[in-house]
User: What shape does this take?
Amino acid sequence: MTYSRRVVDDALDVFIRELPAVLLDGPKGVGKTATALERANTIFRLDDRSQLQIVEADPDGILLQPGPILIDEWQRFPPIWDAIKRHVDSPNPKGPFIMTGSAYVPGAQIHSGSGRIHDVRMRPMTLMERGVANPTVSLRSLAEGRKEVGGVIQNFGLVEYVNEIVASGFPGIRKLSPRARTAQLDSYLANIVQKDFGEAGYSVRKPEAVTAWLKAYAAATATTTSFEKIRDASNPGNDSTPARNTVTAYTEVLQMLRILDDVPAWIPGNNFLSELGQFPKHHLVDPALAARALGMTPQRLLSGDPGQIVFPREGTLLGALYESLATLCIRVFAQAMDAKLSHLRTKDTRHEVDLILVTDSGKILGIEVKLAPAVKDDDVKHLIWLREKANADVEDLIVITTGDTAFRRRDGVAVIPLALLGP
Assistant: This one.
């Protein structure tokens, strides 16, 4: 099978060449093993019992094999982490080493890896990686001050975006027929509760309570709804609402499994905005998981069905899931340029910007996501406010749309269809 190159590959090519060890970290099914296999000369897959036994028998010895050395599903034998750390610290280390799996193993006493093992996050596929279009606008170029914006996409509009939302960015799932894909996504969600929680060291006594909480969280996609309100919404009858400490445990485990992927609130370093909210904006790692948790089909989304659990939001559930898809894509591109992504919302809720990208040089991109093909003046008012407040720190302002043409408005705001945006 031909490997489809991912955005993260460019960074990995540099890291594998220059760093002693890399952890490729992300949710199950995201493609970590396939990506790691592209650059490994020696492979130990610890989900294979026979290979696991070899590693258990001589963890230091196997690290002397020709590199790069891949330790796939490393968390099945946590001592390999410290073995790699010791090897990296030795006078004549071999390698380099690639590990795939979780960044955290409950109960395992291991070295932090700081300075020895570099953590690289891998997320589901962006629209560009899915091959739905050829991007004409580079996010990096905009962040570097280049103003060229252009390009047209044909035969790709709202229906196609909805199909991409429900198809997911999981390589092994999105290629299936709609019926099989739905079954796989349902199984993915069920396995989180029935298997992954246990593997993460948390015993689930009431699987239905976890499922209900995950459903409520999915309904809060792209909002800053408090965890308390999500907790209450997971059982509207309030007869067996999970306790606060139980919900805290759910959150920690799901973050560890990389299922929750909240966007943090923006905290400007120079404090020119002092009245900002601190709540994160909620997202699952892939909007397809949120859609399936809520039982949403393309037809239901296109009809404006709000679902059974409704949280305060501007616009529809579809709009929230579209923002989640855009956030996924922009997050991957931002990581490729070592930029940080957050969101802005003032405490009085008078102003909010969906995404704030800050480069390592401190330049800011303000990004709004609109489930619409056209952009009105009212759609850019918060971006203009941001430019007035942040002044010289703002490099560019962007509105992501479902339209067919990328262009720049007279007020300087770039209008870009999501499918035309690339790294």
Notes: The CA atoms of residues 83 and 365 lie 42 Å apart. The chain has two domains: 8-121, 127-422.
